[in-house]
Amino acid sequence: MSYTIATFYKFIFLPEYTEKKQLLLKFCQDHSIKGTILLSQEGINATIAGIPEDIQATINYLKKDNYFLDLDVKYSTSSYLPFKRMKVRLKKEIVTLGMTDIDPEQQVGTYVAPENWNNILEDKEIIVIDTRNIYEIAIGTFKGAINPNTHFFREFPDYVRNYLNPNKHKKVAMFCTGGIRCEKASSYLLKKGFKEVFHLKGGVLNYLKNISKSQSLWQGECFVFDERVAVQHKLEKGNYKMCKGCGYPLLNKSDLFDCSEKNNSCPHCDSSLNIKERL
């Protein structure tokens, strides 16, 4: 059986977001949908999976709500359900930057379509920053992209304060997995006085889906927050497994052996790097 995975988000003021939780949860459970939906006053952020007709019914249900009429959904497929349960969570932010005065609905950087992204990467006047976290970057990134060495997205403002200057760095481009972190990061940079800020529309997933491998400047695989662990071009399942102890993506066979049910650990296992807590 083939399952459809739907990923979507939208920054929009949701004054009644708490009331939507139970309605969404019940609809998803009634349609055997698995995954996670985050709701906050600033919008919605979700990745869900199910059989194609149930996913389509769920998206149709969401789009009946005026807040989500123009919801942009990215689809991929899997031979198995990559989630074990359905969760709808209420959050302060749908992606945590730790700053409530950043509003991508009001101010955001310039979107760059996947087919134009290579031009950004090859422009020497533009610095390109990978806004994802270190364990994501470890298994794949764009050629020449800067690694800010963050463990959490909320550390990104510290990176900006310490390493970026709007008077020196005239053009900044960013990318992330699905686009949501970059929308917020670009809004933050504009607020801090950076003039020309670009970000990859739809994130790495959109790039890998639409750009052929022969034209791609992506190196490695792309970490995803479900049991597929990582995807490749055309969003095909990657080769990584996940440590049952810390959740770190593993490729080396000896590491996978150490990460067996019996040992339940890998070379990356450490109390300061528990990825599972972030999923």
TrEMBL record:
Keyword set includes tRNA processing: yes
Catalytic activity: uridine(34) in tRNA + AH2 + O2 = 5-hydroxyuridine(34) in tRNA + A + H2O
EC number: 1.14.-.-
PROSITE patterns in alphabetical order: RHODANESE_3
Molecular function as annotated in GO: oxidoreductase activity, acting on paired donors, with incorporation or reduction of molecular oxygen; transferase activity
Keywords in alphabetical order: Oxidoreductase, Transferase, tRNA processing
Ranges for domain Rhodanese: 122-216
InterPro entries the UniProt entry points to: Rhodanese-like_dom, Rhodanese-like_dom_sf, TrhO, TRHO_N
Any one GO BP annotation for this protein: tRNA modification
Family in the record: Belongs to the TrhO family.
Function according to Swiss-Prot or TrEMBL: Catalyzes oxygen-dependent 5-hydroxyuridine (ho5U) modification at position 34 in tRNAs.
PANTHER family given in the database record: RHODANESE-LIKE DOMAIN-CONTAINING PROTEIN 7-RELATED, THIOSULFATE SULFURTRANSFERASE/RHODANESE-LIKE DOMAIN-CONTAINING PROTEIN 2
Name the UniProt record assigns to this protein: tRNA uridine(34) hydroxylase
